[in-house]
Amino acid sequence: MKAAFLDRDGVINIDTGYVGRIKDFKFKDGIFELLKLLQNLGFTLFIVTNQSGIARGYYNEEDFYKLTEWMKEEFKKEGIEIKDVRFCPHHPDITGECECRKPKPGMILDLAKEYGIDLKNSIMIGDSDRDIEAAKRAGIEKTFKVEESLYDIIKKIKKEFL
User: Kindly report the CA angle at 144 between 154 and 116, in degrees rounded to 5?
Assistant: First the structure.
């Protein structure tokens, strides 16, 4: 299986800082088109996201799970399946070091093991250097960094894969 790993805040939704509740969540323009394109290209979709807002006490894991289920349902309404969502609730200054916080590749490697993902033929879409570094450390060679618009990423993916 080849996978598309996506960061959440800044890729899936507008990053307004510590988004942990549905009322604060706004999908980025182009995300539905991007995910449909990836599915049509045969990628299985996964989200890997640092959520230090949990460690900081801005919201809790229950809030995160509610938001995640709502988000997945919104995607499902558009015919998009998110296979799994992994998150790191830690922050090194608060909870200490962990293996899941990007730029460490723990979340990606765990998903690869669980689902039998071919990392060499997978991609990562993130909005920060730590997303890209986590992908590279996991063995993902093809990465896309969101600078401005998701429509720029859509063009790059079409050029690369169509």
Answer: 100
- The string of DSSP codes covering 39-76 is HHTTPEEEEEEE-HHHHTTSS-HHHHHHHHHHHHHHHH
CA 127 – CA 7 distance, rounded (Å): 7
DSSP 8-state class, residue 5: E
| CA separation for the pair 153, 99 (Å, rounded) | 28
Residue-wise pLDDT for 8-56, tens only, equals: 999 999 999 999 999 999 999 999 999 999 999 999 999 999 999 999 9
Distance CA 1, CA 13 (A): 26
Closest C-alpha to 103, from 128, 81, 82:
128
The residue ranges of DSSP E strands in the chain, in sequence order, are: 3-6, 44-50, 82-88, 123-126, 142-145
Residues 6+ positions from 106 with CB-CB distance below 8 Å:
88, 98, 99, 100
DSSP 8: S
Catalytic residue annotation? 7, 9
pTM attached to this predicted model? 0.97
Query: Helix, strand, or coil here: 115?
Result: helix
